[in-house]
TrEMBL record:
Pfam families: BRAP2 (PF07576), zf-RING_2 (PF13639), zf-UBP (PF02148)
InterPro entries named in the record: BRAP2/ETP1_RRM (IPR011422), RING-H2_BRAP2 (IPR047243), Znf_RING (IPR001841), Znf_RING/FYVE/PHD (IPR013083), Znf_UBP (IPR001607)
All residue ranges annotated as the RING-type domain in the record: 184-224
Keywords recorded for this protein, A-Z: Coiled coil, Metal-binding, Zinc, Zinc-finger
Protein name stated in the entry: BRCA1-associated protein
Xref: CDD domains: RING-H2_BRAP2, RRM_BRAP2_like
SMART domains per record: RING, ZnF_UBP
Region annotated Disordered, chain positions: 1-35
Annotated GO CC locations: cytoplasm
Length: 493
């Protein structure tokens, strides 16, 4: 998988690392074995390369995952790892399969259609035994213990390159002569499979696996193309998704002047004069009304070229005024470099000062907002406290009125009960007096009765005795009868 493998002309791969379309399934041969093999395979469309510069498309035919045997018949030393999460970098995957790195001849990173947040890896091993061991060891195994995603390994029948999009100049520049051997951009050694495995990134740049495993970033070491594509941005104001610019100072995302013009409106409001165009990654200076770059990335081949600027001394630009001389002196070059350095130093100082003022204004706004919020919170707390105190005061007043009414009623009841108590005491005295009189009457009657009974006994004894003869019974004394009459009269009264 050398860099030349990414450049296909008229839909044919220039190298022979993966099989050419002439040997792919679905050709002119229609025998029974090929048709049965096609029924046991599934096709996945893939692409690779930087879409802004060049892109290679193809189809990989894989053995079905629901085959009868774990190791299908007719398998080759080529496998495909499907659905690798984007957050796993090239170095992470190399570390994941580190025990088999010495048996890997080449690896190629591709995008699988329909999987925007994942990528796939085509791996060729040096022997069938290593391929089978890799399949049995990693198929269905988790990438790490913290995630549920598992490694899905399928044997690859064939890989077919179906198309290429890019400029003819880039295609010619990427093709190498048969005698030329490409080299690794990191260690500058030849990309020879005998010297170690070769890994081709998603942007079609090739490295040694041992070299790329030390690269901890998810971007390519050559072109800095990142496999993790950023989320689509939109204008903060009008939600537009095209012709977007982001402020390099505060991060405001707005649409261009040919859409809603919210980016330039942000500059007029905040004086943040530098904005980055998200599509081309170029920075625009609203004050100077031009780009700030001396060098930009070409859309044709992705190389850094000089930004086209108009010469101030000619109407048709540089070339007609004779200002460019191949024999320019070293002093002129040094003066230009010094002028550029001074310009960028001044630009940096100006932007730092503007950024300082901007953040100071933000701090002042935050301070004022905080003071306003504190004052509002204090006013709200005081008003709530006052309302609570007023409610408490009203409750206390109501309780006081209730207690006053209750005290007045109790005082009135006290006078009434005093009168009733005096009346009851007088009644009790009268009852006691009547009871005492009755007791005295009963005692007198009892005494009279006792006297009467004693007198009767005495008479009976005298009548029985022999010593009394012809005697007469004397009447009861008048006093006792009169006393009884008095008692009867008193009882009647």
């Amino acid at each position: 998988m050398s860099p030349s493998s990414s450049a296909t002309s008229a839909g044919i791969s220039p190298d022979d690392h993966f099989q050419s379309p002439a040997t792919m399934i679905g050709g002119d041969s229609c025998d029974t074995s090929s048709s049965s093999a096609a029924s046991r395979t599934q096709a996945f469309h893939f692409s690779s390369g930087n879409p802004r510069i060049e892109e290679t498309r193809g189809v990989m035919h894989l053995f079905s995952s629901d085959s009868v045997s774990n190791l299908p018949v007719g398998r080759k030393t080529l496998v495909s790892v499907l659905g690798v999460p984007n957050h796993m970098t090239y170095a992470d995957f190399c570390q994941f399969c580190a025990s088999f790195i010495q048996h890997i001849s080449e690896m190629r990173i591709v995008r699988t259609d329909g999987m925007e947040d994942r990528y796939s890896i085509l791996i060729r091993f040096d022997s069938q035994d290593s391929t089978d061991k890799f399949y049995l060891h990693f198929n269905g195994r988790q990438f790490n213990s913290l995630e549920e995603e598992v490694c899905r390994v399928l044997f690859t029948v064939d890989v077919q390159f179906t198309g290429y999009t890019g400029t003819l100049e880039h295609t010619r520049s990427s093709l190498v002569t048969p005698t030329e051997q490409p080299s690794c951009p990191v260690c500058l050694e030849r990309l020879d499979q005998d010297m170690g495995g070769i890994l081709t990134t998603i942007c079609n740049h090739s490295f040694h696996c041992s070299c790329i495993s030390k690269w901890t970033d998810s971007s390519c070491p050559v072109c800095r193309y990142c496999q993790q594509q950023p989320e689509k941005s939109i204008c903060i104001v009008c939600q537009a998704s095209e012709n977007l610019w982001i402020c390099v100072i505060c991060g405001f995302v707005g649409c261009g002047r040919y859409k809603g013009g919210h980016a330039i409106r942000h500059w007029k409001e905040t004086q943040h004069c530098y904005s980055l165009e998200l599509e081309t990654q170029r920075v625009w200076d609203y004050v100077g009304d031009n780009y700030v770059h001396r060098l930009i990335q070409s859309k044709t081949d992705g190389k850094l070229v000089e930004l086209n600027t108009h010469c101030l001394q000619a109407k048709d630009g540089c070339g007609s005024c004779g200002c460019v001389d191949s024999g320019i002196s070293e002093a002129l070059i040094s003066s230009k470099v010094e002028a550029i350095v001074n310009e960028y130093n001044e630009l940096l100082a100006t932007q730092l000062e503007n950024q300082k003022l901007y953040f100071e204004s933000l701090l002042q706004e935050v301070k004022e907002e905080t003071e306003d919020e504190i004052s509002e919170a204090v006013k709200k707390a005081v008003s709530q406290k006052l309302l609570k105190l007023q409610a408490k005061l009203e409750r206390c007043l109501k309780e006081k009125m209730f207690l006053d009414d209750l005290n007045e009623n109790l005082l009135e009841n006290q006078e009434i009960w005093k009168a009733k108590i005096l009346e009851i005491e007088e009644r009790e005295r009268k009852v006691l007096k009547v009871k005492d009189d009755k007791i005295r009457d009963l005692e007198e009657q009892l005494r009279d009765l006792m006297v009467y009974l004693e007198a009767g006994k005495t008479v009976e004894q005298l009548s029985i005795s022999d010593g009394i003869k012809d005697a007469t019974i004397l009447p009861v004394p008048v006093e006792s009868s009169s006393g009884s009459k008095k008692s009867n009269n008193r009882r009647k009264g």
